[in-house]
């Protein structure tokens, strides 16, 4: 097979939701709040903060939970967070959508979040879903999933770190509307009854 025809990764784009709604716009103006159970490390010179032990990052409706997080401030004042989980406890992410009751949720072995581009990169055994209340509306899984919260476009990559067999990308898209209910059965026929108003014809003599 020619070298230029060998697929290195399967990359797909999917706009989940089908409408014009996006991630919660008010989150962009909210401050970043970081908490952890263990002592952290702050490097003021390099504008870098490291936190350990059940680290929780919130920014409005956005919430990220990881075992370890490294947050760096860029020269133009934005932040980049690099989060990692532990065996049996991956990094989790959740952010509300503009649609009431809907949210984007996901988890992966590692996660990268950039406040400038408003993108989230799920790395290793990645799973991202759109929820409507307690119901999963759509779901995607793969080795790497990149989520752009401004446009709600997902870029999916397969690979050895995919939770699916043979490293494949997997998408589950639920129908937007429920199928029509089956037509109701016709009413049961009533038994014949003798008429009380019609006089039967006389028999010929």
Automatic annotation (TrEMBL):
Its main location: periplasm. Transmembrane segments: none annotated. PANTHER family: LIPOPOLYSACCHARIDE EXPORT SYSTEM PROTEIN LPTA. HAMAP family: LPS_assembly_LptA (MF_01914). It comes from the Bacteria. It is found in: Periplasm. This is Lipopolysaccharide export system protein LptA. InterPro entries: LPS_export_LptA, LptA, OstA-like_N. Belongs to the LptA family. The keyword Transport applies. Keywords: Periplasm, Signal, Transport. Residues 174-205 are annotated as: Disordered. Pfam families: LptD_N. Residues 41-152 form the Organic solvent tolerance-like N-terminal domain. Involved in the assembly of lipopolysaccharide (LPS). Required for the translocation of LPS from the inner membrane to the outer membrane. The keyword Ligase does not apply. Residues 190-205 have a biased composition (Low complexity). Residues 1-23 form the signal peptide. Component of the lipopolysaccharide transport and assembly complex.
